[in-house]
Amino acid sequence: MKDTEKFIKFYESRFGMEIMNIESNYIGEWFKSCNRILDVGCGIGSIEERLSNLNIIGIDKSKEMLIEAKRRSDKIFIQARAESLPFRNESFDGIFYLTTLEFIPNYEIALKEAYSALSKNGKFLAMILNPESEYFKYHMKSKNSYFRRVKHLDLGDIKNSVSNYFMVEDEYFLGINVNKERIFATNDRRYAALYVLKGQKNG
């Protein structure tokens, strides 16, 4: 099964939709004051589909993902890489990565690009898969899991790199029990599926 098909299957399941709704609500609340937002690694456009009230531009390196994204939302989607954003400096007042940053081989370059594309005092958000969580460990048991493509597992290193460009606070978010398909509120790193870095552009 192709990646796009896997994403569609998951995000159209009851469990997947519930997860996406919680994630999109978090993103929507954080960026509600922003006028122009960039979604780096938008995938099939699930966030754009849910946040129709926000002005979001999505980019992804996968042409197939973008075809599906355009089917789901009338927002602008562009084929591009996180390490080479096709935008002028200070084009956005909000930028986010939803389970994307940890998959980018050289995310330092991506962060530098994001810094350039973000306006002064612009908002930044990275929602990163938490490798310490039961959710992550469950998926890593499968040899075909997309989670096995994660390039960076050290959350401390990621935070340090992000802090070179953005003033951020961190938190653990979104408790997930896969076996029971149960979602719950927690900041316990053993159960929280996501590690969140959010803040503003330095300087």
Topology:
Layout: H1 3-11, H2 14-30, E1 37-40, H3 46-50, E2 56-60, H4 63-72, E3 76-79, E4 92-98, H5 107-117, E5 118-129, H6 134-140, H7 155-163, E6 166-177, E7 182-184, E8 192-201
Parallel strand pairs: 1-2, 1-4, 2-3, 4-5
Antiparallel strand pairs: 5-8, 6-7, 6-8
In angstroms, what separates the terminal alpha carbons? 45 Å
The major pleated sheet works out as: 8 strands, mixed
What structural category characterises the helix and strand content? alpha/beta
CATH superfamily: Vaccinia Virus protein VP39
User: Into which percent range does the helicity of residues fall?
Assistant: 25-40%
Description:
- This protein starts with a helix and ends with a strand.
- It has one domain (3-201): 3-Layer(aba) Sandwich (Rossmann fold).
- It has helices spanning 3-11, 14-30, 46-50, 63-72, 107-117, 134-140, 155-163; strands at residues 37-40, 56-60, 76-79, 92-98, 118-129, 166-177, 182-184, 192-201.
- It is of the alpha/beta class and 203 residues long.
